[in-house]
Amino acid sequence: MPEQHNIEYKQSWHDDHLKWICGFANAVGGVIYIGKDDDGKVVHLEDYKSLLETIPSKIKSHLGIICDVNLLDEANKKYIEIKVNPYSVAVSLRGRYYYRSGSSKMELTGIELNDFLLKKSGKTWDDVIEEGASIIDIDDKSIDTFIKESQEKGRMPDTEGLDTLHILDKLRLVEGAKLKRAALILFAKDPNRFYPNIIVKIGRFGIDSTDLKFQEVLEGNLVYLLHEVQVQLNYKFLTRPIDFTGMQRAEKGEYPVAALREMLLNALVHRNYMGAAVQIRVFDTKLSIWNEGVLPQGLDLESLKGEHNSRPRNPKIADACFKSGYIDTWGRGTLKIINSCKEAELPEPEIIEKDGGVQVTIFNGNQVGNQVGNQVGNQVGSLVSDPKRFKAIIAHLMNIQSKEEMKNIPSEKTLERYRKEAEVLTENEFSILSYCQSPKKRKEILEDCLKISNQTKNFNSNIQPLIERQLLQPTIKDKPQSQHQKYYLTTKGKAVLYLYKELNG
Fold first, then answer.
1. Which position among 281, 385, 446, 450 has the lowest Cβ density within 10 Å, counted as fewest Cβ atoms?
2. How many CA atoms lie within 13 A of 371 on its CB side?
3. DSSP 3-state percent helix, strand, coil across the chain (nearest 5)
4. What percentage of the chain exceeds 70 in pLDDT?
5. Tell me, what's the pLDDT at 157?
6. pLDDT at 371
7. Is the predicted pLDDT of residue 449 greater than 80, yes or no?
8. How far, in Å, CA of 60 to CA of 66, rounded?
């Protein structure tokens, strides 16, 4: 049996394996087999008798937990099974915290450690009391705006005649007279006095992200940002202004209002509020919004494109925004973005994990793609006698969105080289490229696509060569060993994949 997300094989015992036990205990539990190789074959333990005494003792003394340690036998070969139960309290090893994620072990530090410890204590970041704040830090005008906008949906409890503190209490944003962090994010006069980067940066760019034309930096509470971002986009950044009235209705503009609405709300409600500012980049042909904060465990990019449950990072903020009518609580935000673009006959939005966060990009359907398509069509037409043979690759390359990207269109010589690579592509390589048209984790590629174990040797022999040949690329280039690392097709990879399909009928 190959290794799985909750099973680990070790040929011999080493005290460093306590980290794996700690990781299992902090996650969903698991089993470690001592005396098995990477393929799950028993190799026999000579020192099994002494290990049966020392392993339980070390687990208890170093981790403070108890695990079942059993001696097993297969064909007269001895090996040890360590069953680790999940713990509701945080488990540490020499002051360090480890966590089992997928098939890898990671040490928790910084924001991830803070979120983990809060979760183990039954709290989330936005549910924590901010001791340095008081009711005088709350902006009454923001609360008035919030209540007024909530009237259409009718989800708010009755607040008539209540003062600010009691309104916040109705929203479960206080304990006694003490404010929770969510209250400050939503309504504070100056939330940046308490937390860094409660900011939205908007930039207008030319051909790429290095060509910044002008920018605006907005700071304030969530209610303020939600409205001020709309104003700035309309007056300074969008060619055809959009009617954001009530964040519900719109005249036809460059982008569907429903898509922009959900993108902005997702970024403000679900961001990591101890991380970087929300960033909006406006180009001639596309608009992207990025917020720091990775997807919750068990939710991936593919899940966002279909029906999925709502799992907010900041449940107190999300609940208040639900009561106001800003959002729903059914995980439909990304579907609204995709469907509204489809209804407007625009390209499908791009949703990626990038730089420790999530970036959503929508496209406005300008004519650059047609120009590129004609140019590429001429190149491919001169390369082969029947240009229709390469219809798929032309369709792909037409998705190029900027003049800068036009420089990267393959030359005739390059297309010929791609064709030769497609001719020698193996079945396994074809399977991986087909599977990675959207970003996939290493474990998914090896176990789900190739049906082999998630081992380093299999990564080195199957995925790494495609990276070296520039057919695959990582989503997090500066942190190749990141637990959130995924792999997806390069432009070259897409071209070779399409050529392979055409050459093989």
1. 385
2. 12
3. 45, 20, 40
4. 86
5. 85
6. 45
7. yes
8. 6
Q: How many residues does the chain have?
A: 505
- The residue among 209 and 59 whose pLDDT is bigger is 59
| Higher-pLDDT residue of 293, 307 | 293
DSSP H helical segments within 45-84, as ranges?
48-63
Question: Do residues 187 and 143 make contact, with C-beta atoms less than 8 angstroms apart?
Answer: yes
Report how far apart, in Å, the C-alpha atoms of 423 and of each of 182, 327, 463, 502 are: 57, 50, 19, 10
Burial 143-178 (b: 16+ CB within 10 A, else e): bebbbebbeeeeebeebeeeebbebbbebbbbeeee
Amino acid at 189: K
Three-state SS sequence of 367-416: CHHHHHHHHHHHHHHHHCCCHHHHHHHHHHHCCCCCHHHHCCCCCHHHHH
Kindly report the CA angle at 126 between 96 and 23, in degrees rounded to 5? Answer: 25
Q: What is the mean pLDDT of residues 278-291?
A: 94
Q: Tell me if residue 41 falls in helix, strand or coil.
A: coil
Q: Residue with structure tokens 């917020």?
A: 291
pTM of structure: 0.63
Query: Using one digit for the tens of pLDDT, what is the confidence trace for 3-56?
Result: 567 899 999 999 999 999 999 999 999 999 999 998 899 998 999 999 999 999
Q: Which of 448, 490, 440 is nearest to 466 (CA)?
A: 490
How many angstroms separate the CA atoms of 93 and 7, rounded? Answer: 20
Q: Which residue has the tokens 């005008």?
A: 141
Distance CA 297, CA 72 (A): 33
Nearest to 333 by CA among 278, 263, 268: 263
In the numeric block, the tokens 């049906």 are attached to: 451
- Alpha-carbon distance of 334 to 378, in angstroms, equals 37
